[in-house]
Amino acid sequence: MEKVGGKPPQSRLCFLATLCAMFWVLIFYFHFFVIANEPGSAGADTAAGAAASIARAELPLPEPERVSDPAVPLPPPALVSEPPPTTATVAKVEEEEKPTAVAHQEAAPRDYAFQRALKTAENKSDPCGGRYIYVHELPPRFNDDMLRECERLSLWTNMCKFMSNEGLGPPLGNEEGVFSNTGWYATNQFMVDVIFRNRMKQYECLTKDSSIAAAVFVPFYAGFDVARYLWGHNISTRDAASLDLIDWLRKRPEWNVMGGRDHFLVGGRIAWDFRRLTDKESDWGNKLLFMPAAKNMSMLVVESSPWNANDFAIPYPTYFHPAKDADVLLWQDRMRSLERPWLFSFAGAPRPDDPKSIRSQLIDQCRTSSVCKLLECDLGESKCHSPSAIMNMFQNSLFCLQPQGDSYTRRSAFDSMLAGCIPVFFHPGSAYVQYTWHLPKNYTRYSVFIPEDGVRKGNVSIEDRLKSIHPDMVKKMREEVISLIPRVIYADPRSKLETLKDAFDVSVEAIINKVTQLRRDIIEDHEDKDFVEENSWKYDLLEEGQRTIGPHEWDPFFSKPKDKGGDSTNPSTNAAKNSWKNEQRGQN
């Protein structure tokens, strides 16, 4: 009985406690994990919230899943619950992280379509690098068709005979021994259109790839076009071919590279024939050089306008067109060795209808001088129409008087230089502001300048002025003139000079330099925003690297008349009309 009435054994109590704990664990497990996780359960949100809070508090966020082996590294995607930061936020964070970073970043340099052409000059192994010319293949109505109708190109002269020998005209005989045996032709002074184009065909750096071209040539016979319609045709007819040309060019991809600013063409007449001021039927010429698109192009003419920037003067053609260097060198040696008995000479006719002309005074002074040779020109037959008579007189003279023609310039200036005769100019527009590509800007090296006002008033003696020049200086000036002969003649288009540069070579080189400099200025943003077109003649006289102009001693000579409303009686128009009267007379 003692054993039965005592405490229960310890092992039984432990078993009962364990069984009770397992019961409550099952109750809690069933309540929190089975019932709470069932969909729609009221306690699910609470349980999930508690579990998420525990997870955020105790566990790190998992890394976003990566794209396996991406071709381009991708940025981590933005979490839907956390929208990507705004630009302002990113900038602010970057600024806080990099307080010393540069806030402003320079814009990347622009690429231009003409940069490939500029880079060709860097290829030292390419002799044409930076010198390539692309030539437009124009429809024949712009050039060849005009030659087929050559009898219509001038009202008074049948131009067909001058088309022979690639535009040089018929050969000249040498019965009087004035010329050399070869290379001399009866070349018309308005044939530069054809001569230049035919010389271009022989240019050694032509290309069919316009992207490497330093310049683009437009073989339009602008001079012939204006000549055939000047008399008896309305302005619509006179402008038709020019408008047609502009329309054709603007549709070409080559035009779009620079809007035509790398294009150039030739018009073998004075600039005033292409600068009609108004649309009055009575006004002179066509308006090619005033067309907005044409203003972007460079036009080579035998006389340019001092007040406009898109035309450039090139020499009139002479009678001499050598085929090789030896022809030029032999001629130069011959001109050096000549005895010149006349101090000065003049070939020309008076201009009684022009009160500003000094020709009558020059003729009077020559007549009364024992050291002057005069070749008077007038209507009808005259020795002035004979190339040999003119060249013979120039070859026997130290100085050759070159007053203004019907316009600023005259072909005679180049004929006299070809003969080794020192030109005497009376107006800076006759050469000094015209042929700056071909003649030295220091005009005292090769010429004498006597302002025409003194001659007009009778205050200047031509003979005394020329006699005052020291013989050593005369010899030096004559040598300079003779050395310039290659630059003022056009070589035979059917050949090419070996080492000497003729007027064509000088012109093309100048155009290339002009376009190349313009392209560099565009890239470097150095274009002259203060350019004053009315002072174009001053810019032409600047030395390389100079950009600033100012007052000039020749300002009085180029005080441009104000064309009120574009009156067609302005001096430039009259000059153009008079030049046609001169052509009618058949003078040079």
Describe the model.
With 588 residues, the chain is α/β, with parallel strands linked by helices. Among the domains are: 114-317 and 502-543, no CATH class; 335-487, 3-Layer(aba) Sandwich (Rossmann fold), CATH 3.40.50.2000. It is 36% helix and 8% strand. The chain contains 20 helices and 11 strands. The protein has helices spanning 10-35, 44-58, 87-97, 115-119, 144-148, 164-167, 192-200, 222-229, 235-250, 253-258, 325-337, 359-367, 387-395, 412-418, 452-456, 462-467, 471-483, 503-524, 536-540, 571-585; strands spanning 133-135, 206-207, 215-217, 263-270, 298-303, 311-313, 342-348, 372-376, 397-402, 422-425, 448-449. The protein has a 6-stranded parallel β-sheet. Strands 8-7-9-10-11 form a 5-stranded parallel β-sheet, sandwiched between helices. The longest helix has 26 residues, at 10-35. The chain is elongated.
Explain the layout of strands and helices.
Layout: H1 10-35, H2 44-58, H3 87-97, H4 115-119, E1 133-135, H5 144-148, H6 164-167, H7 192-200, E2 206-207, E3 215-217, H8 222-229, H9 235-250, H10 253-258, E4 263-270, E5 298-303, E6 311-313, H11 325-337, E7 342-348, H12 359-367, E8 372-376, H13 387-395, E9 397-402, H14 412-418, E10 422-425, E11 448-449, H15 452-456, H16 462-467, H17 471-483, H18 503-524, H19 536-540, H20 571-585
Parallel strand pairs: 1-2, 1-3, 3-4, 4-5, 5-6, 7-8, 7-9, 9-10, 10-11
Helix pairs in contact: 8-9
GO molecular function: glycosyltransferase activity
Main location: Golgi
Keywords: Glycosyltransferase, Golgi apparatus, Membrane, Signal-anchor, Transferase, Transmembrane, Transmembrane helix
